[in-house]
């Protein structure tokens, strides 16, 4: 896949992000590079509406402060030169029934494929592609987070071989065990010893534990899309020192999220290792036989 050629041909690049930080964590360098070339770059955050307040502990209280989270997102995307768009759906943390602990966020079911949220995502992506010059990048749903899987199923349903939809690896793909659980990313494995999560043992161990405890079908299964090796190809978008610095500066704006992910310094260590080991930011293309 000639990723640079595809990006150059696009009049507009839209990165679909499940939550506020996901697009920047995965593709911050690519976003900054395309915006720096003068292309119109938008980040469409799917789960971006303020959830109903619940007494669910410190984590929910921190993530329910949507005024702060939206401001963080505005600053981060401004750093990269991208425009913010928001779909306004409620993230799983604030949907009924209330999740029974953090593990519930990583348990998927067949109902996701038939849900209204999945259809909303698919319909939205089809609408984006009404413009012939638009290129869409969506997550693969690696790591089994329910919200990520919903977005991935919607994108895979909308794609069906459209060359204007590409897929990126979610943050949880920084665990090689998570990558090898997903039918697409496991097509291009990296050595376990090079897993970026090893740069920060605390975060790495947490991601490994989640990969063992996650349950349920992945996005390709839910979308009814059997994975064949010859249909998928991966390229890495290379990052210069300047692009990596911009990406890390943007990530630092997500203070609500960086605390939950182990802190800014640890994230920097993990992401720098990921860029070095994987040659940049991985992007996948689906092409039917």
| Measured distance between first and last alpha carbons | 15 Å
Q: Give the % helix.
A: 40-55%
Oligomeric status? single chain
> How do the SSEs run, as a string of H and E?
HEHEHHEHHEHEHHHEHHHE
Radius of gyration: 17 Å
CATH architecture grouping: 3-Layer(aba) Sandwich
Query: What's the domain count?
Result: 1
Strand residues, percent: 5-15%
Q: In this structure, how is the largest beta sheet organized?
A: 7 strands, mixed
Fill in the CATH topology.
Rossmann fold
Instruction: State the CATH superfamily name.
Output: LmbE-like
CATH level 1 name: Alpha Beta
Widest sheet, order of strands: 3-2-1-4-5-7-6
Short description:
Helix content is 45%, strand content 15%. It is of the alpha/beta class and 289 residues long. The radius of gyration is 17 Å and the shape is globular.
